[in-house]
Structures are given as structure tokens and as C-alpha cells.
Amino acid sequence: MKVTVSIDVPSIEEGLAFFSAAFGFGETARPHPGYAVLTAGETTIGLLAKPAGTSPAKDSDDVRKYQRHWTPVHIDFRVADFEATLKKALDAGAISEQVHRVPGYPPVAFCSDPFGHGFCIVGLSTLDQKCCS
């Protein structure tokens, strides 16, 4: 099984600009004008162009909002160079909401992207570096 996370963004161009600058994603396919596939290393995400104010589902009273919002699902970017990745994300337009640097544990930054979606940047632990790098 292969899992791809798709992210609603106001426009493909805005999403591509952020995820490229922050995490090094590049567009690898555009199977539809409103959907782009981005890849960085072995990671693939999808961007869906969904303008603010549009309905997320048939018969829903809710609308898409691109200011900060809460969702129970978010992406963790597990990275070897925590400080450099956090700086790149902030320079690209992310907001750092909280950073934890606890001795003996990998650092974690709770952030949001320019579209209001929460995500975390997590430094690799010793275990990650042995088995997953």
C-alpha cells in the first residue's frame, strides 16, 4: 500500500511555492489542472486547488477557510537538520507556534503553514537515525 496525503490550498501555485521553499518538494505530475503531485526524496504529497469559501463536502454548511484552524490530522516532517528546516519553513511563510527542546528527546516545532494547516517539524531521534535514514 502507498499512502499520499493531499492538502487543500487556495491555488496550486501558492502551495507549490510554500512546500518547495520550506521542504524542497518539486512538482512531479499534474494529472488535473486543480491537482499537483509533489515529491521530495521518498515522500509524495498532493495539492488540491480549493478556493476559500468553497464547500468541503456536498450538503455541508461549512466552508474552506485558510486562516489558522484546528484539525485532528496533521503532517509530521521528520528531519535530520531540525534548525535548518525550521528556518526554511519560517522563511517560506510558516508560523512557529511552539518549540520543544527537551534534553534526551528530539526537538519538535508545532507550526502552521500559510494556509492555516497545522504541522510539526520533528528532529530525528537516535533510533530514527539507526533505522530510518
What does this structure look like?
The protein has helices spanning 12-23, 82-91, 126-131, and strands at residues 5-9, 26-32, 35-40, 43-49, 75-79, 95-100, 108-112, 118-123. By secondary structure, it is α/β, with parallel strands linked by helices. It has one domain (5-52, 65-131): Roll (2,3-Dihydroxybiphenyl 1,2-Dioxygenase, domain 1), CATH 3.10.180.10. The strands form two sheets. Strands 1-4-3-2 form a four-stranded mixed beta sheet, covered by helices on one side. The protein has a four-stranded mixed beta sheet with strand order 5-8-7-6, covered by helices on one side.
Chart the SSEs and their pairings.
Elements: E1 5-9, H1 12-23, E2 26-32, E3 35-40, E4 43-49, E5 75-79, H2 82-91, E6 95-100, E7 108-112, E8 118-123, H3 126-131
**The CATH homology group name:** 2,3-Dihydroxybiphenyl 1,2-Dioxygenase, domain 1
- Poorly predicted ranges: 129-133
The third-level CATH topology is 2,3-Dihydroxybiphenyl 1,2-Dioxygenase, domain 1
Residue share in helix: 10-25%
Order of helices and strands: EHEEEEHEEEH
The CATH top-level class label: Alpha Beta
Number of domains: 1
Oligomer: single chain
Keywords:
single chain, 133 residues, alpha/beta, 2,3-Dihydroxybiphenyl 1,2-Dioxygenase, domain 1, 4-stranded mixed beta sheet, 3 helices, globular, disordered C terminus
Short description:
The protein is α/β, with parallel strands linked by helices.
